[in-house]
Amino acid sequence: MFKYRDPVDIVKVGAKEGVMSIDLIESESAVNCLMTLYLLKRANNQIDGITKMQKLTFVAQNEMAHEGIYAISGEFYKWNYGPISNEVYRTNEVLVGNNLVEDRALALTDRGEAFLADFSYIIGDNKEIFTLIDKCVDEFSQLSLHEIKEKIYSMMVTPLGWLKQSEIKDLPHGTTILRNKGFTSLEIDADDIETLLIYIDEELYQSILSGMNDVKYGRISGLQTA
Known about the structure:
Elements: H1 26-43, H2 50-66, E1 74-79, E2 82-84, H3 86-97, H4 110-118, H5 120-125, H6 127-140, H7 145-153, E3 156-157, E4 166-167, E5 176-180, H8 190-200, H9 202-216
Antiparallel strand pairs: 1-2, 1-5, 3-4
Helix pairs in contact: 1-3, 1-6, 1-8, 2-6, 2-7
């Protein structure tokens, strides 16, 4: 359903081809978009590139994993500049391609701001989870990319399939650090997900608004059948 800015080519941005990725269903992608928009808003334009966005998303998802919270879907693995996730790249493509986030600057557009306002009730219903994002963003967003990288490299983690902890900097290239699929910790129902999906897809959303206006102003009197 979602429109992308360009066909997503993960290899171009340095990730590993064909692996280190999980298949997300549309509802999981939609929730990722909501969580990412909130993270970017909280950072108040302090995230000036996709690499920094990758790192802050990792910090938030890693903190959630420690708390047993399942909200952001994706897999992070050790790569050239620390933990990286193909799903973060894909979420960014959706947000930029549907005019929710500005390209390059990674700042919310007016449409992105309106999106968060319209779904503020979901944020309110899940205060514990979004407060955790606040904590992570407040700690890391004002640091330089180098400072963030050094702090993350010194983190102790237990990679997927490992029995012991290791500092991230000592992990072999390509090691899966964490993985989550699903958002079972979120208080969100099927109607909310359907509305998220419609709102994120700019073309579909505008089409629905246009149809509603046609009915409102008498241009269409009702559903027409062939």
